[in-house]
Amino acid sequence: MVHAIYRVTSFNIVGPYTLRVVFDDLSEQTINFQRILAGELYRPLRDIEVFNKVRIDPEVHTLVWPNGADFEPATLHDWPQLEEALIERAKRWELVPASN
To answer: What pLDDT score was predicted for residue 93?
Structure first.
């Protein structure tokens, strides 16, 4: 199976936990991440100051945060089709105690 490869070319913060992401195929997605900020990796992004430190990694061309959180560009590109599954996964992550 062949999977399309996408690169994030730019983004804008358009609201709390919400980014407009532009891809190399000139498509864009406006994504509200708030409902999936769970689990050890993504929970720290609930701090809006941390969330807003998002940047584009120049090597892998996707969104990354200082704590190492990131998303595959294809996940961001296809967000509308994947959002409900990601929300369900985040709910399960909330059931796992945070490590200290």
So the answer is: 81
